[in-house]
């Protein structure tokens, strides 16, 4: 990937695209569509360029813009590398997951405070206790008989 002049991801949908993280960490300037979590990674004009989805002319123009300005592309790539450094590596992911799994559960809402007695919760109401104790919430009824 380091041999790329520009990395392009013209998606219509993306979660948090690890391939953009990889490009940024390798110092490759990024052009991508501004969908879902992509703008969380790519800051337009600072760490890369974003274009609207389904706009091939704008995508091509953004690619050409960076190819015609290698110094600017290099500056964006360096800012992008600094942005992702120490945030998205395997070690950081491991530490984040371990912290999440080892943490004490948060204080959960009391069904009594919001719905009366624990068994009185409505099937379509939210009760945070269902995360740790599904039986504390009134059972959902399947009306599709």
Write the layout of secondary structure elements.
Blueprint: E1 7-9, H1 18-25, E2 30-33, H2 38-41, E3 49-51, H3 56-68, H4 70-84, H5 90-102, H6 111-115
Parallel strand pairs: 1-2, 2-3
Account of the 3D structure:
The protein has 145 residues and is mainly α. The chain folds into two domains: 7-101, Rossmann fold, CATH 3.40.50.2000; 104-138, no CATH class. 40% of the residues lie in helices and 7% in strands. It contains six helices and three strands; from the N terminus they run βαβαβαααα. Strand 1 (7-9), helix 1 (18-25) and strand 2 form a beta-alpha-beta unit. The longest helix has 15 residues, at 70-84.
Please provide a brief summary of the model.
The chain has 145 residues and is mainly alpha-helical.
pLDDT average, as an integer? 78
Order of helices and strands: EHEHEHHHH
The domain tally reads 2
CATH superfamily of the largest domain: Glycogen Phosphorylase B
Please give the share of residues in helix: 40-55%
Structural class: mainly alpha
**Portion in strands:** 5-15%
CATH architecture term of the largest domain: 3-Layer(aba) Sandwich
Low-confidence stretches: 110-115, 121-145
